[in-house]
Amino acid sequence: MKLCRFGEKGKERPGVWMEDGRILDVRALAFHIEDYNEHFFVNYGVEQLKLLLADPGANFIAAKGVRLGPPVARPSKIICVGANYADHAKEFGHEIPTEPILFSKATSALNGPFDPIHLPVESQVVDGEAELAVVIGKRTSKVRKAEALDYVAGYTVLNDVTERIVQKANGQWFRGKGFDSFCPLGPFLVTSDEVPVLGNLRVWQKHNGEVLQDGNSKDMMFDVPFLIEYISQGMTLNPGDIIATGTPSGIGSARSPQVLLAAGDVVEVGVDRVGAQRSNVV
Length: 282
Ligand code: ZN
Hints:
The chain is of the alpha+beta class. It folds into 2 domains: 2-69, no CATH class; 78-280, Fumarylacetoacetase-like, C-terminal domain (Fumarylacetoacetate hydrolase, domain 2), CATH 3.90.850.10. It is 16% helix and 29% strand. It is built from 7 helices and 19 strands. It is globular, with a radius of gyration of 18 Å. The protein starts with a strand and ends with a strand. Bound molecules: zinc ion.
């Protein structure tokens, strides 16, 4: 099942993306499901949606021309993993980490999967990072990796857009990765049952139609179950929280000559079986 949120920015409604070009308007069918937020995951969750889908009535809209927002309403946190693919760590001039490097993206940076990415006035060196993102479905604390995937609602795609000068100039990566619109998420939350094999998914990025990144999730140094165990030992993951699992090699700023995001460009990122985004840069 593919969960999506549709409608105007800030007023999105929860939906289920159907393969026939329609969206099920979940709130029209079940008014108590206001949004895909922590309350939803705790009280209803994916199982409840499956029950609703058995008798959806006429609560569908045509998907064509409808704006999609991030598939999860503002989560309590977005945790990112830096340098999780060895080839990317090398191209970025980073040592190969012996433990996951965690950082955070501001939740205010969240953007719809087809919304424009706004370059900040001060930006000089901006590029994207295609990433597989995990959406947590249950409160997760001190979980072992053998059980870790039981706590996952599903997967989505995250573009970890970054201003490299600011990232490197500030002691922290937070500002360079936290500008408004620097976190396109979606288009869907694809439920775990549709992504049975996590360790062999193509993760890619295109810049104006040209392939920049063409990696595979099997090359992650720290895989999803390990990351959930590692993070949850001391930090509770709340339902709806996002873990971005890192990006493979090929980013534009590490190339010679550099391929950077400029106004008028189109950046696409995707993960096999999970989805693809397309953003205009303005
Ligand atoms: Zn990243």
